[in-house]
Amino acid sequence: MSEPQGSDGSNSTQRLPVLEKTSDTAADTTGQGQPSSAAYDPLPILGAGEDRNGRFWSARRVPATVLALLLLVGAGAFLYDITAVRADRPAMSWRKSLARQLAERPLDDTWVLVGAGVAVALGAWLLILAATPGLRGVLPMRRTHVDVRAGLHRAAAAMVLRDRAVEVSGVQSVQVRMTRTRADIRAVSHFRELDDVRADLDDVLADAVRGLGLSRPPALSVRVGRPGPKKG
Questions:
Q1: Which domain holds residue 90?
Q2: Which pTM was predicted?
Q3: Residues 1-17 pLDDT 10s
Q4: Contact, 197 vs 171, CB < 8 A?
Q5: What DSSP string describes 73-110?
Q6: Dihedrals φ, ψ of 141, to 5°?
Q7: CB of 91 within 8 A of CB of 81?
């Protein structure tokens, strides 16, 4: 085989120039020779003592829908009757009967008192719904950023405590009842001393409650017993 020769008849090999990418070139993503960074605004951090988080407010969709439908039906019926009267048509019989009953019945009549009691009860119920947050099943968690709120369902919190409790040596089964302010744990131990099991459960569950990151950690109530006699 013949090898390529130069103009002077001798063998020559030229090394092609290699373009090495510098750090400035690698950082250049905009094509203008300057490093590019995405616009990023970090979340504002809460100060000390500001990490408390209140309860989540319920949307109250069902009560609001029921009240809106009742108002719509009542307003529609009265509007239709008033329009019929304005059009020189007789008023509906139910409105005549209602007006007569309201004019003739005394204030101490049984039906008047019953109607007033129902109206007061409905009004008090609506005021309570408007003044209370609801969502009792969601436990608020501590806030680390101003614009971020998090909550934990009570069932999920109870499951975490139960899973941590069954890891303790000697524990056979665990039942957890979780409320907004209290966690009742009932454990069954089939070996080891009950006092030792209780001490380990106190330590493990206290650490588990801290790990939940709740804004208001619930109080722990731990009970340990032996399994009951087998039936049959």
A1: 61-131
A2: 0.58
A3: 444 444 454 454 555 55
A4: yes
A5: HHHHHHHHHHHHHHTT-PPPHHHHHHHHHHHHS-TT-H
A6: -105, 165
A7: yes
